[in-house]
Amino acid sequence: MAALSTDRAVAVIGSGAMGAGIAQVAAVAGYTVHLFDTRPDAVAKAIAEIAAALNKLVAKERMDAVACAAAIARLHAAAALEEVAEAGLVVEAIVENLEAKRGLFAQLEAIVGDDCILATNTSSISVTAIAAGLRVPERVAGMHFFNPVPLMALCEVVSGLATDAAVAQTVYDTASAWGKQAVHAKSTPGFIVNRVARPFYAEGWRLLNEQAADAATIDAVLREAGGFRMGPFELMDLIGHDVNFSVTQSVFNAYFGDPRFTPSVLQQEMVNAGFLGRKTGRGVYRYGDGVSPAAAGAAEAPAVAWVNAEAAQPKPEYVSYTIEQGSAAHAVAGTVVDALAARLRASGIDITHRKTPETMRAAGAHDDAPAFHCNGAAIYLTDGRSATQRACDNHHDDTVLFDLALDYGSARRIAVARADQCSLAAYNAVVGLLQAAGFTVTRLDDVPGMAVMRTVAMLANEAADAVNQGVCNAAAADTAMKKGVNYPRGPLAWADVIGIEHVVRVLANLAASYGEDRYRVSPLLRRKQMSGGRFHD
Ligand code: NAI
After folding, report:
1. Which residue has a Cα nearest atom 8 of ligand 1?
2. Is the Cβ atom of 38 under 6 angstroms away from ligand 1?
3. What letters, b where the CB count within 10 A reaches 16 and e where it falls short, cover 125-155?
4. Do 34 and 169 fall into the same domain?
5. Residue 151 structural domain
6. Residue 241 falls in the annotated catalytic set
């Protein structure tokens, strides 16, 4: 297979935000591009904007002046649809409406040759439905770019039921030739990214709704412990709550009300209020008028000053590491716990290895050994139970949980949760311990699964389900999330690092805590857990 030859022209229909971006990358990659739009002046405006963007790159010495002039010269305004007759590939980026897209493709079939590929940039409409009724539905595929197209690396190549595999492969290779990271996906609601990303937003809303912490604190934990570029609320403020809510609703409806995708009442209220985010000056945060620190600069994380951080506590005298190498507990979450132990040791904290106290062993807690022990506090990695429940289960009041981090070695922040029955002295000793290792310690109220762990477990669960249902393979799922929404690690690779057994445990405990089908474990995760398999070698 090969990319469309640069001898063949590309037509882009619809020259709004997406169409202009698509035209730009195609022209830069060496293709003659015909741009068409029904709105007067839209094409001229798009071409002028592309030229300005490319000239800016030249000014920054990121593009050669000759290459820039050549790319601009390859852009042609089509005054009528008939002018795209010679195209080998048409990319449609018109209004998100099934009838409009079907109508356009039917018109195009009468204009272009039978070997011309018809691609749609739709993000929410079934590619199968768009192709239905055409004379040659085999030539229709999704070519789903992300906004802004010149900057976002991903292109989901979507096959509908009728799509010819060779057509999908040509689209894939063409997107690659345009400098994009292409992934294959089956036409299903949300494709890969808009489906797998839903829990990132939804778990944020649920944490907020249950008053785990304020929005700025949740954002800070996801960013500074989880390693995400932005927390869920600052990201939704940027996307716009109207847009984000409507994608969630569309995926929820398309999956016939599957509770995995239930929209948030809190977000609906944001939309009802017109608090749509940065674009209206108010979303979860306020922007402009010096109301919040975010007003200082759009790139700055908003409202950092409000983030909860525990006051300084003294470094405790000793800490012991209680998970025994080779034990059942170590087999489940050992990698993650060892990483935190390494951070503590690297900070000069003397960790002695000590067995789980007899009192806890007697209570049958040996299968659930705490990671660390410090001044009477049992410290565990969250497994989806609340600290309060774990304290009950293990008959040990002084119980504190810590949340997942992308990399404990470099994380600035760590979140903890205190059991309701945990003494302040024991809790403060844990805070002092983590502060001595250089962490900013943030307390979340005692909700099951904490923030990073439940978000990542749910992302991995959704990615696993997409793979299980043949939407894409594991490599594509991870690539899509890294390149389409800048996740610091693919969700399935992350599950491998945490340990599939632990991820399943987190989800099962969330399901038990909430009694909601939302947290049901993907059959593929279960299968990997039972076989001891991984997603990536
Ligand atoms: P937009 O509103 O900026 O641009 C759409 C353009 O299509 C307008 O200039 C409009 O005049 C033109 N148009 C409408 N009907 C037409 C027709 N029948 N023939 C020719 N031109 C027509 O919209 P945007 O954001 O560029 O989105 C376009 C498509 O890309 C939609 O399907 C959208 O779902 C999809 N998409 C949008 C993303 C985004 O972040 N904005 C991301 C990924 C996909």
Report:
1. 16
2. yes
3. bbbbebbeebebbebbbbbbbbeebbebebb
4. yes
5. 9-187
6. no
